[in-house]
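Summary for the funding panel

The consortium committed to producing paired sequence-structure records for every protein in the target list. Below we show the first two records in order, beginning with the earlier of the two.
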Amino acid sequence: MSLFLDTTQFSGKPRSANCLTIGLINNMPDAGFAATERQFIEVVGAATGNSIVALTLFSIPDVPRADHVRHGITQQYRDVSELWNTSLDGLIITGTEPRAANLKDEPYWDTLTKVVNWARENTVSTIWSCLAAHAAVLHIDGIQRCRLPEKQFGVFNCQVVTANQVTHKLREPFRVPHSRYNDLSERTLASCGYKILTRSAVAGVDTFCKQERSFFLFFQGHPEYEADTLLREYRRDIGRFLRGEQEHYPAMPQGFFNVEKIAIANEFRDRALVDRRHNLIDSFPMSSLEPGLERTWRTSSIGIYRDWIGYLSAHKARKRMLTVPLQRTWRDRLIGDMLPRPT
């Protein structure tokens, strides 16, 4: 794995010409912040191949956080305001849990739109994950997301709709985790110039893109998830039900548990429905549900990120080849001017 955090190995050191610089803006709330950082570092690191990648971590201060979490972030993350004067090849922006019905009412909206504008002009390519994808298309083209009748939650088979630089090697069907309450209309995306890359018959649009000055790649799913991420989200949502923070008992993730684990999860659900109290979550059967969970989407996830990194590398190589002749011409002209002219 040839991945280095910019705050450590590369701090203050010149980078080699073949080193890719990628930024990660982690917007996840406190409970999932560290896990999200770990997930993206792992999948990008596994996808580097022969490339050398320097990863710089950024945070948006407008995302609400507890003081102790904010203090910890400052030890390793740069404020997003430093992004404007940073040179990057690629950028990844994570999603977060929505707090407002309208994304434009989120406390970080103004800053996130500045990131969209900056990325369009200053990156070779940017990945927008889940809520960040919804925010980006809303800002760029005014595309509104729509609330789903129930949470789209589970691991779904997907097919390639359009083969491009990040999807042409995928073996179908491939699996992708989804965890979201909102969706984007495929027809509206297509009418605004977005290409649908992958789709699930159940979960709808999975991956889509738009090529302008920068290549924007959008994920409605979560290829970066670890094997137990959906289980932990399921437990979190059950806890919210038991505390009275949500009305209905959450549905278990689709396509995730085997028959035995489904029975175990349903047994706890039956208990919770007749004995709804906040501390019942302490007896949630994590020890029975967690063993044996498989990250069945890992190969395809790494493949997508490997091809994305390859796209960045190819663009950097082409740019380097174009600048070399110009440098030689300038040098030859300078040397020529220094030589004595014939008399």
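The next record, for a separate protein in the list, is shown here:
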Amino acid sequence: MSTKVNVPALPESVADATVVTWHKRAGDPVQRDENLVDLETDKVVLEVPSMVDGTLGQILVPEGETVQAGDLLCEIEEGKPSAALARALKQEATETTQPAAQEQPKPATPPETGMETARDDNEPVLTPAVRRMVKELNIDPREISGSGKDGRILKSDVTAYLDAREAAAAEAKEMAAVIPPVDEASQSTIEGERPEQRVPMTRLRAKIAERLLQAQQDAAILTTFNEVNLQAVNDLRARYKESFEREHEVRLGFMSFFIKASVEALKRFPLVNASVDGQDIVYHGYYDIGIAVGSPRGLVVPILRDADQLTFAETEKAVRGFGKKAQDGSLSYEELTGGTFTISNGGVYGSMLSTPILNPPQSAILGMHNIQQRPVVENGEIVIRPMMYLALSYDHRIIDGKEAVGFLVTIKNVLEDPARLLLQI
């Protein structure tokens, strides 16, 4: 009995997807809930799992093709796979993907006599058992290095060759998850002293480019700066980091302080938490904070919903979960949708100062930067303190400089005296 595997329902506003990576080949055994293929949309990578146990049949949509919801991807033969069925499916897949190999005439094979036979000077020496083995596995014996006497190929050499080929295929799949396959027809390389290569953007990179360009075209972006002394935050983290981690099983980082300080500032300056819709200003009575995260596929912004209702521990766990999912490519569409304000931390890459670009339709974004020990004046004396430059980019259409500067000063004051978070002053 065959089970059809179709493209699942795509998220709202997503019209199609691209087949990125097949994790199984025709003839491979599959288990229920095992991931078969990755589909890339403008925002996320969707996994398509097997619904049954069985053997993967012919793959109907190759990597790089565009599909829509409901399109047939492959079929699965249910039940425990037989060796004959697996060989037949793999042979069919080989004949489909490598038609040129069929057109090459095969040299005549002398009858097996039980004696070791050399076909010609370029043909390796094979025993009848090894000859049957390479024939059944559809292997070119000239690709195998023999370790026997006079270079003859042993069964152990065939097994080692198969292991090496499977390891290379697994490594290629891992690389494909990070670097999408490039269509040779759509790229061009110029050989010489100054080589160039043309590679099409991934769907995510193209969407990022579109949204950034949209932000600069549709908003009047202005950036204001300030600096913050993080000595009080460092002292608080050093004092409670062990007990905090022991109690909550998560490390107390900087991001939770910045998120809490941002929420406090958003409450005092509601326009920074608002958005523009045509000729209207939409005020949001909730605080969904976007956390910009780098991933192998590009920048993504998962949303920390109702951040004002989360504890420090819940905030830290959520942020670390986003980072792990971004690296794994397992963020869901829902986790990337919405948001009223965004925080971007270029400091993790060593950035000292930047002007972050808005994440439409939001009206503001906070840029964190690298922490450096710098001399500052306190009570008339020069002391060394951990300092960070802060940047707030905002839509000047609805946010005036007074609100923007006041917002950033509030964040500065809260971080330099964290007790304000408890006293709400």
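Regarding this second record: The chain has three domains: 1-101, 127-182, 204-423. DSSP finds ten helices and 21 strands in the chain.
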